[in-house]
Amino acid sequence: MKKDFFTSSFDPKVNKNQPLAERMRPCSLNDVVGQRHLIGEDGLLSRMVAAGSIGSLIFWGPPGTGKTTVARLLALETNFAFEQVSAIFTGVSELKKIFEVAQRRFMSGDKTLLFVDEIHRFNRAQQDSFLPVMENGTVILIGATTENPSFELNAALLSRARVLTFFSHDHESLGMLLKRAEEVEGKLLPLDDGARDVLIGMSDGDARVALTLAEEVWSVARSGEILDAGALQKVIQRRAPIYDKGRDGHYNLISALHKSVRGSDPDAALYYLARMLDAGEDPLYIGRRLVRMAVEDVGLADPQALVICNAAKDAYDYLGSPEGELALAQACLYVATAPKSNATYLAYKAARRCAQKNGSLPPPKHILNAPTKLMKEEGYGEGYCYDHDEPDAFSGQEYFPEKLGRQSYYKPVERGFEREIVKRLEWWKQLRKKRKNQP
């Protein structure tokens, strides 16, 4: 028998004027789309429900992945009282009132599941207020966050709650969700296969967005009209992908871009560049990061990389969007395809460690200027050799502090222009040895 999603999966008493995403909230964990690693037959949450015992949890994942829905259903299927608050609109005084009600339930043998949306927005003191009621069992806390709990939540709170990851919906699960929406609405989406795929892509893994876009399609399509991909993009403004410039999305994508460049994958680098620009990242920030990649990961293996990346940043500053974005793309491709060397980066780190370890050692006097008579009498500048007057423009004299002795920080690689530098350093090494042995 074919399953009737409207009568068995969704609440038939829901107000028909509510948004489709709200009307389609499932009434059972079995009907939740996606997150099978948690609510599938052997999923952790399914096992908790079967055992009738739920511990405090942190649901971590992008918007529209079912965190709120799953929390509600956990309370429903375990017969816990359900309380829901948002960290944006709730203070400690409101929490205390909820704790008092939960305490009265607890004393009468009932349990309370408290769902806190965007729990990462609570400050340290507010987060600490949960600890006593979690420890004595007054409430079972489920916090939802789109941000990395390791950075946003107190260690004390994390030690008392298990973190469960919710993943963005894939193409298949969003496709299934749209089919359910068609059953609930009693009509098909007026889209061809290509447009349907585009709509799923626009949703960016967010079920709520997918259903909102579906509603919009039904509202704008003319009777009998079937929209193709081009028509769909005209009637629906493309949604910007999930991206918060101050949080994980920002750092994850810049990390992906940097590592793609370092790994000499120009296509992946260009993809992440496009993702960031498409999501509204500051192009000049990307330009600055490309300059950093040029010096950190290419260095003297291709000195032109720094010139090109700096020029691309300036070109964007001059042209603006969208023309200037092409300059950033060109620089991105250049550094991704350039020979790689981190020898400059490593050499500078080694030099800093040495400088910090050895303190303020004075340079040898022969390389110091002597603008006064007293300084000349002290031996400043005495014995200095002007290298341009020497054979091969190389004197071989020592420049390090006498108490430190000769050091070696820079070790160029056998790639790109650094191959030539290796030859030069070896040549100077031999000349230095030769000069040293001369009477």
Automatic annotation (TrEMBL):
Gene Ontology terms, MF aspect: ATP binding; ATP hydrolysis activity; DNA binding; enzyme activator activity; single-stranded DNA helicase activity
One record GO biological process: DNA synthesis involved in DNA repair
Keyword Nucleotide-binding set for record: yes
InterPro entries: AAA+_ATPase (IPR003593), AAA_assoc_2 (IPR032423), AAA_ATPase_RarA/MGS1/WRNIP1 (IPR051314), ATPase_AAA_core (IPR003959), DNA_pol3_clamp-load_cplx_C (IPR008921), MgsA_C (IPR021886), P-loop_NTPase (IPR027417)
Keyword field: ATP-binding, Nucleotide-binding
AAA+ ATPase domain boundaries: 53-171
PANTHER family named among the record's database cross-references: ATPASE WRNIP1, WERNER HELICASE-INTERACTING PROTEIN 1 FAMILY MEMBER
Family indicated by similarity: Belongs to the AAA ATPase family. RarA/MGS1/WRNIP1 subfamily.
Function field: DNA-dependent ATPase that plays important roles in cellular responses to stalled DNA replication processes.
Record's protein name: Replication-associated recombination protein A
Organism name: Bartonella kosoyi
